[in-house]
Design a protein that fits this description.
alpha/beta, seven-stranded mixed sheet, globular
């Protein structure tokens, strides 16, 4: 995949030991499955960066015929999973998965922006490669579902994501960015606009791309938003089907 991927430390990863997909957001997932899959009922799910397994447990509860695989590179989070006969755990980055292991639904819940490398361009390549890998792994009627933070500039572009990446990926600036609350300081994070995520999915070979806005977020003051080039800051949900 080109440049080496960067991973958060175990200490940094613990800050993400939270399940953000509540019942209201999970309704969007079920609606996406109904929209894309129609009469086909998916039974094989992969939860990328699934952490403590709470989302996987929700899948198992709502889809009684489902089997899930929680893919998580941090062993500490993986150890927090509840045992379930239809759940299996994989201690590895998603990029190490077997592309022949066909699955019906692949979930990326606030995960893709953590697929980072040495610079912004390399990070974009890593994210695109992950989406292409997901496409290869999916069954004929398979889909991806994605929750992400959209950072749009006034033209709907990627200026905020680039600036945030430059600040958080710098080792030199890590004490400062950490002081201001960036948990990814020294490693980096690669956010995108809605338009960029859709373009990336198209390049990865997906079709029938559906986007919905869940809610606005962020507590930055006007000065910080202006410096970062942020016009809109929203949580979005994307679903797309294997072409």
């Amino acid at each position: 995949m080109g440049n080496e991927l960067r991973f958060l430390s175990a200490e940094q990863t613990q800050a993400f030991d939270v399940e953000y997909v509540n019942d209201l957001l999970f309704e969007r997932v079920k609606q996406a499955i109904n929209h894309h899959c129609g009469p086909f009922t998916p039974t094989r799910f992969v939860d990328v960066g699934g952490g403590n397994g709470s989302y996987s447990d929700k899948i198992l509860e709502h889809f009684p015929m489902a089997n899930t695989v929680v893919v998580e590179p941090d062993q500490g989070l993986l150890n927090k999973n509840r045992v379930h006969p239809r759940k299996s755990l994989m201690h590895a980055p998603f990029q190490h998965m077997d592309t022949l292991a066909r699955t019906d639904v692949i979930n990326f819940n606030w995960v893709l922006h953590h697929f980072v490398s040495d610079n912004y361009q390399a990070s974009c390549h890593a994210q695109l490669s992950a989406l292409k890998l997901a496409n290869e792994m999916l069954s004929q009627d398979g889909i991806v579902t994605i929750f992400e933070n959209f950072y749009d500039d006034k033209n709907g572009g990627d200026v905020p994501g680039k600036r945030i990446n430059q600040l958080t990926s710098s080792q030199l600036l890590s004490p400062i960015t950490r002081y201001f609350g960036a948990n990814t300081a020294g490693v980096g994070v690669a956010f995108h606009s809605e338009k960029t995520w859709v373009s990336m999915l198209e390049k990865a070979g997906f079709t029938d791309i559906q986007v919905s806005h869940c809610y606005d977020f962020g507590n930055l003051n006007k000065t910080k938003r202006r410096l970062l080039g942020i016009d809109k800051q929203r949580v979005g949900f994307i679903s797309a089907k294997k072409a």
